[in-house]
Structure prediction request, 238 residues.
Amino acid sequence: MCFNRVILMPTTFYPKWITQSGRPVNMWSAPQQLFDADPFHLRMVGEIRAAMGLSPSLPFASASNRIIVLASADAAARKQAGIATPRTLTNEDELLKALTALPDVTVKQVDLGVLPTDEVVKLLNQTALLMGYRGASFGSLVFLPRGAYILEILPLGTQHSPLYPSLAARTGKEFARYVNDDPSLQHCRHPHTGDAVVGEHCEGRYTELQVKVDEVMQLVRSILDMQQAAMARYSFDG
Prediction:
C-alpha cells in the first residue's frame, strides 16, 4: 500500500538482514532474534492514521469494549474485484457461531482484502483480537491498538514466516498461532485447475482447512483472559 509520504512493504520485499557470518537472509527465514522494536514502524503507521482523521498515536486495546475480527474470504466480493481466494476454512461458520457465543465481546466477520483501506484502519483501531486463516491481509495488523492479539491459523506443513510476528512485535501487539496437526482435515488444491494435489505439490497457501473448533476456542479464551488480566492493571479507557 502506498500513501503520500508512507510506503508499507509488500511481502515480496526482502529486507537486507545480515547474519553474523555476513550472509544475507530474507524475511521468510530470518531468526527470531532479529525481531526489534522499531520506532520507524510506529511513525509510519501514525502518518497513515493521521491521514485518515485518527490520532497518530496507536491507542491501547480497550478492556471494556472488546471486538474480535474474524478475517474471512468473501469469494463473491473477491471474484468481482479480481482477487484470488487461494485458501479457505471449510467450517468457518461453525467457528463464527462459537465466537459469537462468547460473553462480553463483539464479533465481526470481514474480508480485509476487499474492504477499503480507510475502513480497515478504523475497524482495527477498535479491535482486541484479529484472527483467521493466514493471508496477505494480515499485514493490516499494524493498525491494531497496542495490547491487541493476533491469532493466525495455519495448515499442517506451512512455512512459519516471521513476517507477521515481527510486525506485531514492532507495533506493540501479541502474536499466537494455531497449527493444524491432523492431515485428514486439510485438502490442497492446484492454484490454477482446482484439482486435488498431494505430496510436495501441496502448498499451504492453497489449502482448504477444517479447524478443530474446540481447540481454537480454548486458545481464544486463554488469549482473552490474558488480555483482560493485563488491561485490568491499567486504565486505558476513556
User: Anything to note?
Assistant: Helices lie at 39-51, 75-81, 92-100, 117-124, 163-170, 213-232. The chain has a mean pLDDT of 75. DSSP finds six helices and eleven strands in the chain.
